[in-house]
Design brief:
The chain has 196 residues and is mainly alpha-helical. The chain has one domain (3-193). It is built from 11 helices and no strands. α3 runs antiparallel to α7 (101-112), α3 (27-48) packs across α8 (116-141) and α6 crosses α8 (116-141). The longest helix is centred in the middle third of the chain and has 26 residues, at 116-141. The radius of gyration is 15 Å and the shape is globular. The termini are far apart. This is DUF937 domain-containing protein. InterPro entries: DUF937 (IPR009282). It comes from Fermentimonas caenicola. Pfam families: DUF937 (PF06078).
Length: 196
């Protein structure tokens, strides 16, 4: 299972409609931005999970707050006041991207054509949803801190599943795969691992 299944579900469609309304962009634009932003967040988490300390920190955050229950009521939450969700997302993004958050927002803005002023709130809204999805999958697979990197790779649609297509990465590879090697993870990592 990867996160493209969430995006293609009724919950995902509700998320895209909500983001379209909140940011004042059409649903096609919203879908494109979400399809690009979620892998960027997941890639940031994957990078953090490459160290034992980072994996443990991510694991603690999931265990304490992000068990997946947010997804059960997401449509109602998105129709209401989302400030609490965005505040939570700002905290998550601080851990995921650190000082590189602005660079990530600017890169996503260039890739999608949506202003970076709208990308910031969008990322903040998406981060808790991504964490909830990760928490749900972690619980389902009984994954510990040491296995989070592999779990994240699976959600990204990359990794050892031998998948030939259909993952979220396929949805955005044409946009982000600058070097044409079929692997967009390196390009997403470059958003915040290199100085721009």
């Amino acid at each position: 299972m990867d996160i493209s299944e969430l995006l293609n579900s009724s919950t995902g469609q509700s998320l895209i409609r909500s983001i379209s309304d909140k940011l004042g962009i059409n649903e096609k634009e919203a879908s494109g931005v979400v399809s690009t932003a979620i892998p960027a967040i997941l890639a940031g988490m994957t990078k953090n999970a490459q160290t034992a300390e980072g994996a443990e920190s991510l694991n603690r955050a999931i265990e304490s707050k992000h068990d997946g229950s947010l997804l059960d009521n997401l449509s109602n939450i998105l129709q209401g006041q989302t400030q609490e969700l965005q505040n939570d997302g700002d905290g998550i993004l601080g851990h995921v991207f650190g000082s590189k958050r602005t660079a990530v927002e600017q890169t996503l803005s260039k890739k999608t054509g949506v202003s970076s002023g709208k990308i910031g709130p969008l990322l903040a809204l998406l981060a808790p949803i991504v964490m909830a999805y990760l928490g749900k999958e972690k619980r389902k697979t009984s994954t510990g801190a040491g296995g989070l990197g592999d779990l994240l790779g699976g959600l990204l649609g990359s990794g050892s599943q031998g998948r030939s297509g259909g993952g979220i990465m396929d949805m955005i590879s044409g946009t982000l795969d600058k070097d044409g090697d079929g692997d967009v993870i390196d390009e997403i990592f470059d958003m915040f691992s290199k100085k721009r």
